[in-house]
Specification:
mainly alpha, single chain
């Protein structure tokens, strides 16, 4: 039974690597390329972790646990990278925030394995486990309130499943751990489907109001509520200063009564949103969506 679970785990993790690599096409023109690069690295290391965790190959306990710890740590990197995905500064965020986070979370395990010369596995203490959980909550919390909430909860569950063996609560070859790649693969499929469906809604919108609202919803799904609130505040500063009769809500531009705004009243609000999104997307990406209908 264990050997079959190991094979399923390995196949699912390889498929996950391929799908994450192909995910790049959905992010063209966005500042999320840094997150995608971290996701590719994380998927590859996670695949390696599933390979050494199963019954297919035998390596030292210390090296096995170190690969598993590396996979857990790197799985946090894409979402943490997302929190700094605003230009200029997105590239610096990877080097001065995300990479140090990975090193700090990995260092206790590296020290333990080095001290035992690989004979004893790395074990996460309360402090190290709490640090990882805090990073997860910071990253995943930004997805709550968007259509990415359910995939984010699944992602959280998948990381916790991989923490448990390192904290001594599960065996590294537990069926729950070995089925982790299936969970992550399902999570990736949900995220992909939501982005594709939102892009399709933008392209099929028949009014300027619809294309703006769908583009705004797509931005929230991609960047989370933290950046969405920042953009919303900046746009509504223009609305207050120039005394518009519309404001940017979480579901799009609305009038003071909460109704959908006619296209004739969206010229200046759309330009303001275009300016705010310019820190996150290329001019072509914005033009193909916000200005698809002219």
């Amino acid at each position: 039974m264990l050997i079959w679970l190991s094979c399923i785990s390995l196949v699912a993790s390889v498929v996950l690597v391929v799908r994450v690599i192909r995910f790049r096409a959905l992010l063209d023109g966005l500042t999320l390329i840094g997150s995608w690069r971290w996701a590719v690295v994380a998927a590859v290391v996670y695949c390696l972790a599933m390979f050494v965790s199963g019954s297919i190959v035998e390596i030292s306990p210390g090296l096995r646990s170190l690969v598993q710890l590396g996979s857990v740590t790197l799985l946090l990197a894409p979402l943490m990278s997302n929190l700094g995905a605003r230009s200029p500064g997105a590239a610096a965020w990877q080097w001065f925030v995300v990479l140090p986070m990975v090193i700090v979370l990995m260092w206790p395990g590296i020290s333990q394995v080095y001290s035992s010369q690989g004979k004893s596995p790395a074990e996460l203490g309360v402090t190290e486990s709490a640090g990882i959980v805090i990073v997860i909550l910071m990253s995943v919390g930004s997805c709550l309130g968007t259509s990415m909430a359910f995939p984010a909860v699944l992602f959280f569950a998948g990381i916790v499943m991989n923490i448990l063996p390192l904290a001594g609560f599960l065996h590294a070859r537990s069926p729950l751990v070995l089925l982790g790649p299936v969970l992550f693969l399902f999570c990736e499929s949900l995220v992909r489907r939501r982005i594709v469906n939102r892009n399709h809604a933008i392209l099929s919108g028949s009014t300027v109001s619809e294309t703006i609202d769908e583009t705004w919803q797509l931005f929230q799904n991609l960047y989370g509520l933290v950046w969405a609130r920042r953009v919303q505040d900046r746009v509504n500063q223009f609305a207050s200063r120039e005394q518009w009769t519309v404001f940017l809500a979480m579901n799009g531009f609305r009038d003071n009564a909460g109704n959908i705004v006619p296209d004739t009243q969206l010229e200046k609000p759309r330009d303001a949103l275009r300016w705010a999104l310019g820190r996150f997307a290329s001019e072509d990406w914005i033009h193909q969506r916000l200005f698809r209908l002219g």
